[in-house]
């Protein structure tokens, strides 16, 4: 039996166990240790500093941090250290099949999002948790089962299984959460969906790619069912992800492995020509599934709660899954610090997060469709063009959805409501004034918009 596990299960027990030391586990543990003292984090993997096996291998995946994530890192005193390893990005650049490029700024005022290698950020989070008074990290410890009543964990270490009792268990254990499984045994429903596409991480070497593409943008190549996206890295290279349907198309993950390089070169000739190392990666790198998770309940009485992907894994294309998981941890901590007893505090946490999470799950799915559709090059569709004009004419009132999610602390549900209202308004204006309205001069467009809002008693400014 590992000495750490034996120590953790004997005399000086922690009150709270956090299952999972992925992206949200360390954040949750730091918040809770500040409030309650002793917290154990239990993870099946090796410590990221000692990773050796395939499942522990650092991934080249890049993730983006936006306003919700930064607020949490600020509160934990980590923002500066994290920013040092980030690359700022001001927009996304689409590489179209005909060779043209279309740049779309992330924000109208030049705001930036921040790209960071997932394993670098993870390492910083784990190190900070380790340095936090009261936090004890138990790596190489797989939770086999969770009893949410006692509550207790059945944990498998190097030399066998051990039952470890706590007062509260927080499930930060991702898509295949054991803590969620324990809730479903209490009669609550949950669904894990494997999306019909998967992805492979591919690296573009600095000397090949760095010279070609601007390093202040996310680059993507939308090709209908196939999508390649690449983030610049601090060494001048790019980390990319190739998204393909799992099956049902010629270029899909079900195609024979040895055909992938040729199919890739046909779909993305410029990429294949840019780095001849990609072919070897396509033959050997793992294909990763993408899952979504919905769980009817995230909490059980005062003993258990879920955070992050364990209760709401989402399509990755808005770059909000981890940001949202950080926000879960923050709200959980706020509810626990509000003077309520644990059962009421956990119920309040679930209530406060649910509508925002439902919204960002839906928004993320929709955004995938946006990224896989080539942007209109010449004349945008009237509704899209009109929305663009309105966000320019009324910058305070009509804030694009991406800006609301990435650059503000507004709840995702409120952001979604604003977006729906804008869609309804543009549809109404086009019906009333015809498809040429997006070409109208500013005065006319302002007048008809204000009139239309006034008819529905909606003020033109927020
Ligand atoms: C391709 C892709 C791109 C993404 N890009 C972004 C992005 O740009 N921005 C963003 O905000 N989000 C992004 N995400 C989403 C983000 O990665 C997740 O939302 C985030 O990792 C969730 O964190 P988590 O802590 O809930 O789960 P995880 O990070 O998955 O951590 C779960 C942890 O639990 C441990 N565990 C699981 N089961 C057990 C067990 N039985 N016993 C012990 N330990 C266990 C695992 O070992 C793991 O360490 C992306 C996701 C994908 C797939």
TrEMBL record:
Pfam families linked: FAD_binding_3
Residue ranges of every copy of the FAD-binding domain listed in the record: 14-361
UniProt protein name: Kynurenine 3-monooxygenase
Catalytic activity, EC: 1.14.13.9
GO biological process, one term: kynurenine metabolic process
InterPro entries the UniProt entry points to: FAD-bd, FAD/NAD-bd_sf
Molecular function terms from GO: FAD binding; kynurenine 3-monooxygenase activity
Keywords: FAD, Flavoprotein, Monooxygenase, NADP, Oxidoreductase
Catalytic class of the enzyme: oxidoreductase
Protein's organism: Saccharopolyspora phatthalungensis
Tagged with keyword Metal-binding: no
Cofactor(s), by name: FAD
